[in-house]
Task: inverse folding
């Protein structure tokens, strides 16, 4: 046993006990002095009261087990299952062994039901419902407190699992830590008619931009009709034929008309309840439009994309003229060549995208991307696509005439070397080339008249028939080749002279220079061990050819006959190209991606590895629309002209403007307003968070408004980190709150800068489990695994004896305060009787 005082400070009250010996003054029965017994009894009363207020408690050993049942009797449980559970609970309590003390925690039970269950249990505790549903968290927490610390016990949860909040984790963790198993009896959930559960949006509402409003229905219903209304009752959109087999999602497209706040209503046909929600609406986006080829492009794009944009056309007046990019959310370069954009603006755009989060979009055809010279520009690093410039390699046609010296001096190995060099040179020709062979041996003749190089058999035969014999006469052979080439039409003409370097006199230089003037090159090859021949070098120089030396078969030259050329192919691809769409609703909204028309032309590019391709050419897989993050900003590339012939098929597409506008809106920085503001409601507390969107030292000016936009008060926010400010205020949960944030007027901000808006809608502290709500049901399978419990069926529940756990230090707390108060009352009554007896024994005359 161990005695413990829970509030020991009250023991100081016992110090007042001696006071009664001095006041009030009384005499004993003989009138000779103070009465001792009354004073002693009064002192004892004070001491007992002081001890009782100090809340003494006695810890004693407790070997009993507690079998606690949490009975969910809330309206979410099916009526038949609820009635059977009520009938089985007394039988379950009676089935427990004698050492086990049955306890009950009832959720949502009536007073009559609690009175009926009380005789069967050692204790019955009631947990009230929260916001129309069961309070599982409160019941589990009460179960942990009902089983004393260190005692053995178990918890049996009979429920449908429907919860009003995700706050039962703490109680379950405590039960698990104490080793108390949690057994589960899963009850059937009552079918509920379809109701409105949630009405929200995941994106920012902006003037002129279509936003997705997400509606969640919970319950059972078929062929439902849902209507979206403005606050004044005006019908915005109506949707019918909705089936809800337990949960359903409906999406409305809504385009706000003015900045500030807008209140919308959802109405479900056949129900009187209306779900109202207030949304904050931002100003239109500011666009810097840069174009060099498109006439009146800003106005035409504005008509196409809608009213959610403010366009500023800009044309550079000089190389140093750079606009203030901080004023804009998006910079759009529309079919403008790189040469038309000053270097200062290009570098400013790159820095603004990377460091300030400015949105960048480039689009166009023959003046954009690779054709526009953007491939090597600094701004190309920010684009999600790479410029592709393909080249076509061409092998021009050539006519080669080989002149072979077959004089007597070429006998033996030399003629074989000459033939091998000739074979190598002729083998370099392609089928569209031509070849001929002239031999000289004192006279000259065409061993192979000029013919296509594809006649390889004839060429081989002509070479094989040659043999050495005769004198060396080179000039007539060169003249014969020259005349033979006059009637040939090829890009290159080449004469290759193979000899051992015999010298003869003649007018070589005039002939060779004339041949060079007519684009006929003459090269020479020295056959034999000699390393050099001044005569052959001169011939090669006059003929603008090359000189080669072949001393043996191990040093055969690679004769250069022609130079392959290449030409750039146009990157802009005209034609009709079917597109494949990528990306989800966040990019396209409600756009039917299967209806995207083809394009009539685009610029061939290659997507960067980290880029997100939203549209691509179906066959070639070239990106048509791609986007990615670059630094703090986003860059998007449309490789066709939005207003040119490339998108001519889109003119008849009704969703073209909305789809393209949504992509540009996702690209935009949304950074003109200096601060992003959000409001988070937690019961009666509303926390405001303002985050600075770009570098600076401005502080936010946050104002609370009424529904009409009138300023009610100013909210003070304190800095918590660089660029992050927080503040808190309190309001009733059913009161909607409206806020506006902008930079404080001063050096860093101007009072006319765009503001950010935030709204904290009215809501209850807890969710309605009958309406479904976003809170999920309690996961019984995970609960059984974590709590080491068993699953019980309702049919066998009356005979179920739960397995107990815990019991490391079984103690029982006995409260002694009531005994102290009762004893103090008895002593006080005894003191009264004693004084009355004395008065009766000694009456006063």
Result:
């Amino acid at each position: 046993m161990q005695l413990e005082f829970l509030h020991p400070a009250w023991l100081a009250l016992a110090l007042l006990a001696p006071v009664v010996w001095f006041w009030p003054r009384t005499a004993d029965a003989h009138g000779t002095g103070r009465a001792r017994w009354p004073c002693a009894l009064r002192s004892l009363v004070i001491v007992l009261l002081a001890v009782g207020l100090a809340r003494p408690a006695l810890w004693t050993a407790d070997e009993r087990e507690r079998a606690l049942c949490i009975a969910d009797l809330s309206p979410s449980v099916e009526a038949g299952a609820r009635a059977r559970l009520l009938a089985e609970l007394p039988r379950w309590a009676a089935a427990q062994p004698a050492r086990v003390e049955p306890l009950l925690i009832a959720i949502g039970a009536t007073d009559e039901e609690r009175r009926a269950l009380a005789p069967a249990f050692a204790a019955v505790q009631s947990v009230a419902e929260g916001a129309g549903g069961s309070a599982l968290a409160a019941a589990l927490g009460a179960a942990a407190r009902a089983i004393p610390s260190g005692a053995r016990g178990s918890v049996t949860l009979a429920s449908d699992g429907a919860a009003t909040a995700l706050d039962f984790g703490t109680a379950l963790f405590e039960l698990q830590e104490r080793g108390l198993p949690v057994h589960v009896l899963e009850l059937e959930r009552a079918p509920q008619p379809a109701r409105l559960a949630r009405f929200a949006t995941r994106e920012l509402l902006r003037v002129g931009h279509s936003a997705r409003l997400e509606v969640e229905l919970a319950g059972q219903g078929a062929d439902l009709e849902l209507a979206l209304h403005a606050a004044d009752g005006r019908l915005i959109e109506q949707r019918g034929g909705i089936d809800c087999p337990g949960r359903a999602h409906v999406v409305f497209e809504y385009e706000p008309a003015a900045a500030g706040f807008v209140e919308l209503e959802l109405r479900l046909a056949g129900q009187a309840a209306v779900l109202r929600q207030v949304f904050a609406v931002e100003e239109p986006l500011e666009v810097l439009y840069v174009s060099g080829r498109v006439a009146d492009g800003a106005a035409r794009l504005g008509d196409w994309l809608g009213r959610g944009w403010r366009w500023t056309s800009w044309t550079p007046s000089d190389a140093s003229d750079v606009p203030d990019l901080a004023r804009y959310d998006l910079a759009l370069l529309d079919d403008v060549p790189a040469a038309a954009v000053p270097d200062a603006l290009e570098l400013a755009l790159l820095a603004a995208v990377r460091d300030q989060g400015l949105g960048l979009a480039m689009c166009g055809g023959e003046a954009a991307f690779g054709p526009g010279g953007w491939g090597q520009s600094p701004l190309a690093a920010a684009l999600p696509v790479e410029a592709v410039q393909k080249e076509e390699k061409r092998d021009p046609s050539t006519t080669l005439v080989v002149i072979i010296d077959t004089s007597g001096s070429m006998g033996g190995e030399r003629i074989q070397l000459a033939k091998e060099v000739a074979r190598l040179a002729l083998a370099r020709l392609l089928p569209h080339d031509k070849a001929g062979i002239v031999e000289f041996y004192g006279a000259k003749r065409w061993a192979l008249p000029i013919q296509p190089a594809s006649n390889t058999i004839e060429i081989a035969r002509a070479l094989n028939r040659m043999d050495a014999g005769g004198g060396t006469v080179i000039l007539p052979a060169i003249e014969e080749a020259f005349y033979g080439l006059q009637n040939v039409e090829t890009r290159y003409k080449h004469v290759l002279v193979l000899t051992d370097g015999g010298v003869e006199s003649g007018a070589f230089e005039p002939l060779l220079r004339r041949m060079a003037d007519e684009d006929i090159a003459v090269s020479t090859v020295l056959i034999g061990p000699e390393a050099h021949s001044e005569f052959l070098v001169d011939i090669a120089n006059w003929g603008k050819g090359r000189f080669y030396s072949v001393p043996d078969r191990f040093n055969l030259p690679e004769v250069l006959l022609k130079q392959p050329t290449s030409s750039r192919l146009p990157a802009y691809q005209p034609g009709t190209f079917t597109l494949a769409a990528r990306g989800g609703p966040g990019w396209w909204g409600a756009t039917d991606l299967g209806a995207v028309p083809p394009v009539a032309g685009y610029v061939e590019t290659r997507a960067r590895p980290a880029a997100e391709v939203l549209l691509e050419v179906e066959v070639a897989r070239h990106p048509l629309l791609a986007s990615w993050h670059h630094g703090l900003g986003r860059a998007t590339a449309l490789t066709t002209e939005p207003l040119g012939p490339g998108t001519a098929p889109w003119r008849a597409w009704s969703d073209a403007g909305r789809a393209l506008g949504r992509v540009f809106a996702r690209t935009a920085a949304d950074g003109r307003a200096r601060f992003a503001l959000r409001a988070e409601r937690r019961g009666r507390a509303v926390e405001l968070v303002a985050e600075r969107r770009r570098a600076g030292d401005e502080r936010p000016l946050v104002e609370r408004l009424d529904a009409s936009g009138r300023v009610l008060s100013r909210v003070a926010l304190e800095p918590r980190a660089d660029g992050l400010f927080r503040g808190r205020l309190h309001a009733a949960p059913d009161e909607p709150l409206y806020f506006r944030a902008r930079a404080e007027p001063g050096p860093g901000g101007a009072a006319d800068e765009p503001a950010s808006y935030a709204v904290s809608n009215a809501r209850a502290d807890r969710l309605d489990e009958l309406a479904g709500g976003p809170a999920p049901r309690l996961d019984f399978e995970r609960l059984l695994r974590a709590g080491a419990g068993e699953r019980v069926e309702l049919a066998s529940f009356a005979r179920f004896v739960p397995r107990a756990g815990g019991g490391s230090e079984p103690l029982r707390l006995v409260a002694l305060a009531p005994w102290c108060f009762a004893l103090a009352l008895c002593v006080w009554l005894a003191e009264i009787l004693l004084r009355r007896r004395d008065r009766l024994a000694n009456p006063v005359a």
User: Anything to note?
Assistant: Residues 2-60+815-841 form one domain. The radius of gyration is 49 Å.
